Amino acid sequence: MMTAIVFLLIMTTAVLIHEAAHYISAKSVGVPVESFSIGMGPVLLKKQWRDTEWRISAIPFGGYVNIPSMGARADADGNFEHYDEGFNTKKLWQKLMILVAGVVANYFLFIVLMATVITAVPNYRSLTAGLAVESSGAKIDGLLEGYAAEKLGMQKGDIFLEINSIKDPTAEQVSQTIRNAKPELNILLKRNDELINISTPWPVAVKEGDERPLLGIQIAPLAVKDLPKINFFQAIAETTVFSFKIVPEVIKGFVKGFISAFSSKQSED
After folding, report:
1. What is the mean pLDDT of the chain?
2. 134-225 falls under which CATH superfamily?
């Protein structure tokens, strides 16, 4: 539940910053903005300020900015025509600035948020810097009720010393061995000061609803070596470099903005 709330808050912040960027860029070149809403749906509160109606709407997620001259309007005969004011009177570079401002703002928001995350949790640098998080050993972190592990007497906290002749296996090796082992599974566990040998035919019959045989354990590394910490400014630099890997999406936003502005220019001609 908390994860969902945090996700929605981040998305709402991203949308509001996106729309605020459109608003600021439009006003900076003299394009009227009819309304700016925090939230969606029915308007609860509104106030006119600086030629814009500021709204708080009923659904507290997201928001929008309304720039009428970016669209089309119907004439007396019901035909749609472009506005001859506001957005359509601006130079191409000004139109582009308004159109792509939201994308650019979200790009910088991504840089700041990602840098904040990897500053607080350095192991996420495995994503931004391609560094591997080193882990060793494997233990049982939990059991699923009704599966083989429970019947074989395995317990949460048991440490894997060996599985099918692999000594001191990693969590990944344990998982792969369980997935591929035939015709039996041989496991040596350590529980406190006790050694426990387990041998069972494998694979067992697949339970209804499962795609493959499951031992019924949750596996976790015994030890994890955290990646080196970096400060926020180093994180900004690292995240910026990482962003170059996803820059095609940013370019796509610029291209869409250019095509939209160019089409509008052709319509005027």
Report:
1. 86
2. PDZ domain (2.30.42.10)
